[in-house]
From TrEMBL:
Matches recorded under SUPFAM superfamilies: alpha/beta-Hydrolases
Domain of life: Bacteria
InterPro entries, A to Z: AB_hydrolase_fold, Esterase-like, Mycobacterial_A85_antigen, TPR-like_helical_dom_sf
GO MF annotation list: hydrolase activity
Gene3D superfamilies the UniProt entry points to: alpha/beta hydrolase, Tetratricopeptide repeat domain
Pfam families reported in the protein's UniProt record: Esterase
Alphabetic keyword roster: Hydrolase
PANTHER family: ENTEROCHELIN ESTERASE-RELATED (PTHR48098), FERRI-BACILLIBACTIN ESTERASE BESA (PTHR48098:SF6)
Protein name: Alpha/beta hydrolase-fold protein
Key word DNA-binding present: no
Signal peptide: none
């Protein structure tokens, strides 16, 4: 047990090496608001890297469980590094003031309207000015603050790309307005909703209605998930929800696993290289996460191409390799492998020769290239 605790502690220290506090002077609120900022371990060592941002209402008690879940996922490369911003709301009095709404209109009102503007017009621009952020932004909250974050959906262009609503105490008409908005979404969008089966009745029933209406809207661009956790209360369901929400939003980021391979890749008749390319393009274009194709993922697709005799797709694999690893021998090797499998040993030999002059990568070495060159030259002589 001590070893497990030590592992979790080391993960937290190594993945989130910088946790600091700041006070944002707000004209909208007429006061300062304290925030907690969690920066990834690579923030200082990778000065050109940009990161998605996770904004947390109720940051006083949500920051640590969220940062712990992110740290764990980053450690196993199942989640990307991200910047976490926890907004302090100190006590129930302040969080209720921040979430003030007009009960007739079902919209932010008075101090709630000021807090709404503080986040959108002051906090987000401040973070984007002072930190290296990607365009992908997520916001999360619990009960009344989980309801409040939905008001950003009402805008013509929603401020955030992903919403994590933990047992929201929905504002009036919200179970109707949100699905109406989802029906009009034209860009990929993420929405996570959760409750406990022992949740407060007046909260649970509107959540179930919202879930039903979202499913009726059925917009494929809305990446939606609803969790109802058994044997959980309004408060205990939060710790179940956090990893589920993060893994839902960043599903495409994860390395190819057996489930993805079986359900999405192995069933394809062709287009294996295109699938790999689309996976990493989605990471970049939708999630704002730019990483080179993992070598394990590359190898999985290469093996499937060879197994299905789809040798022409090795040309596409070479293109991917040359973009992500321009100095490595991977791209030229893929072309050599393609020509070899297509029965063109002379052309294969030339590509392997080119590869031998480039940087080794993974299991590919210069000695291996020399062996392939000799093999192809011998084969070419036999086929004269």
């Amino acid at each position: 047990m001590k070893k497990v605790c030590l592992l979790i502690t080391l993960i937290s220290i190594s993945v989130f090496s910088q946790k600091k506090f700041d006070n944002i002077k707000s004209e909208k609120l007429g006061s300062e608001r304290r925030i907690t900022i969690g920066l990834p371990a690579s923030y200082e060592t990778s000065p050109s890297k940009k990161y998605p941002v996770l904004y947390l209402l109720d940051g006083d008690y949500l920051f640590d469980p969220f940062s712990g879940a992110v740290s764990y996922g980053v450690y196993w490369d199942d989640l990307p590094e991200m910047i976490i911003i926890g907004i302090h709301q100190n006590n129930d009095g302040e969080r209720y003031d921040d979430s003030t709404i007009d009960q007739n209109q079902g919209l932010p009102f008075e101090k709630g309207a000021e807090f709404f503007e503080f986040i959108g017009a002051e906090l987000v621009p401040y973070i984007e000015k002072n930190y290296r952020t990607s365009p992908f932004k997520i916001i999360a909250g619990h009960d009344i603050t989980a309801s409040f974050i939905n008001f950003y959906l009402y805008k013509d262009i929603p401020l955030f790309n992903g919403y994590i609503c933990l047992s929201p105490e929905l504002a009036p008409k919200m179970e109707i307005r949100i699905p109406e908005k989802f029906a009009k979404v034209k860009q990929p969008f993420f929405y996570y909703l959760s409750a406990g089966d022992g949740d407060i009745k007046k909260i649970k029933e509107p959540i179930e209605k919202l879930d039903s209406n979202i499913k009726i809207a059925n917009n494929p661009l809305v990446n939606y998930k609803y969790d109802l956790f058994k044997n959980s209360t309004h408060y205990t369901e939060v710790l179940h929800s956090i990893p589920s929400a993060l893994y839902h939003i960043f599903e495409v980021y994860k390395p190819i696993n057996s489930t993805e391979f079986k359900d999405k890749i192995a069933v394809l008749k062709s287009g294996y290289a295109d699938y790999l390319d689309a996976k990493y393009n989605t990471m970049s274009e939708v999630l704002g996460v730019d990483i080179p194709v993992r070598m394990n993922d590359f190898k999985v697709i290469e093996n499937l191409i060879l197994k299905n005799n789809a040798y022409d797709e090795l040309g596409k694999m070479a293109e991917i390799a040359n973009v992500d690893y321009p100095r490595a021998m991977l791209g030229e090797y893929e072309l050599g492998l393609m020509y070899e499998k297509m029965g063109e040993p002379k052309r294969a030999s030339k590509k392997y020769q080119n590869a031998s002059q480039m940087e080794p990568i993974g299991e590919l070495t210069r000695d291996m290239m020399y062996e392939k060159i000799d093999e192809m030259n011998t084969l070419a002589k036999k086929t004269k």
